[in-house]
Amino acid sequence: MPQECPKCQFENPDNTNYCGKCATRLHSGEDEVGVRTATLDQLTMSLKTGSILANRYEIIERLGIGGMGWVYKAFDMEVNEKVALKLIRPEIASNAQTIKRFQNEIKMARRIAHRNVCRMYDLGKDGNTRFITMEYVSGEDLKNSLVRMGPLTPSRAVEIGKQLCRGLAEAHRLGVVHRDLKPHNIMIDKQGNAKIMDFGIALALGEEALTDSGVILGTPKYFSPEQVEGTDLDARSDLYSLGVILYEMVAGRAPFEGDSTISIAVKHTTAAPRNPMELNPQIPPALSRLILKCLEKDPRKRFQSADELCGELTFIETDVATREKSSLFGRPLETSQLRLKLFRFPAIILPLGVILILAYFLFDQLYVRRSSEPAAQANSMWVNSVVVLPSHLDELNSELSDL
C-alpha cells in the first residue's frame, strides 16, 4: 500500500522512510500509517507466504500496512475461501479495553450485509497475536486508482458516489458510523463496484491509537469539522468525508491541503473550499453544488442522510451523462438551447434539400419531354402523305416507257 508524502503528495513504496520526490520524512502523521515498532517488525517476519496462522489461515501475500499493522491476503482453510487478514499492533492488542471495543464494534459491523460494504468476519487470536478477518476484494483501492488514472469523469464519480451512499445508508440504519471514510478504505473490484472497508475499526481504536504510537486516528484530509473539534459524530460526519472524496474524484485533489496535520485540520473548520469547477471546468454546476453542500461546516446545512444524498446524485445523473455525451470536440455544449438549435438545423435543412432535388429532376424530365415533342410531331406528318408530281413529269415518264 503506497504512502502519500504529506508535503508533495507523491506516492511512495510502503517500505521507505523518506519521500522519493522531495525527501520529506514519512510517517509524519498525515496518513494513518504509524511508526513501525520493532515488535511488529519481528511479528511480521513470521507471516511469510505459506505460513499458517491460528491453524486456519494460510498466508498468501502481504498487501500493505494500515493503522493497525500489516494487511495480508490469506486462505481460510476451514471455509475454503480467500480473506483479508489485518494484524493488530502489539501495543494495541495488549490493551484489554481496546480489544473489548473491537469485539463490540465487529459484532455491530458484521450485521451490515450490503454489496457495497466489505463484510467483517471475526476477531481472532493466535498466542499473543490478535487479528481481524474480513472479506477479500480483488481489485484496488480508490486512492491507488486515482493516482494511476487521475480524475474520474463526472458520470463515473456520480456512479461510485451512489454506491457509497447505498452502503453508508445501510450502515447508518444499523447505527454504525464509519468515522474514517477515505479513498484508502474504498475498494473497487474488477467489475467496477465500490466496497467500503473497515467499519467500526476507527471507533474501536479509540484514544489508545493516539498514545505512544505516532498514529493519528483518521486521516486529516478527510476529517469532518466535528472530528477536528472532538465533538460527537453522527452519520453526517461520514457524508462530509464522502463530499471530500467526491471532490477529489472529479477535481484531482482534496479540497484542503497543507504542510502539516494541524494546518489541514484547521482548514476543515475555518476555510471555505474552492469551487471544484475552478479546478476542472468539465464538472457540471449541479454536481459542484452537491459537493459543496456536503462540505458545509454546519452539519445542519449538509445532506441529512445518505439516502437523501443518493437521491440527489440520482437526480443529476442523467444531466451529467448527457453533458458528457453531447461534448463537442471535447468541450461540453454550454446550454440546452444551443443543443436544441443544433438538432433543429439538420431537421429543417434535410427535408428542404430533398424537396429541391426532387423538383430539379421533375423539371428536367418535363423539359426533355417538351423539347422532343415538335420533332416527334414533324416526323409523324410524313407517315400517311401522298406525293403529287408536276404534269410535265408525267410526259417524261411516258417517253421513257416507249424507249
How many strand segments? Answer: 13
Distance between the termini: 131 Å
Spans of at least 5 consecutive residues whose pLDDT stays below 50 are: 28-37, 207-217, 331-343
Element string (H = helix, E = strand): EEHEEEEHHEEEHHEEHHHHHHHEEHH
Describe the structure.
- The chain has 403 residues and is α+β, with helices and mostly antiparallel strands.
- The protein folds into two domains: 31-328, Orthogonal Bundle (Transferase(Phosphotransferase), domain 1), CATH 1.10.510; 339-363.
- Helices cover 45% and strands 14% of the residues.
- The protein is built from 14 helices and 13 strands.
- The strands form four sheets. Strands 3-4-5-6-8-7 form a six-stranded antiparallel sheet. A three-stranded antiparallel sheet has the order 9-10-11.
- Strand 1 (3-4) and strand 2 form a beta hairpin.
- Helix 8 (235-251) runs antiparallel to helix 11.
- Mean pLDDT is 79; it is low at 28-37, 207-217 and 331-343.
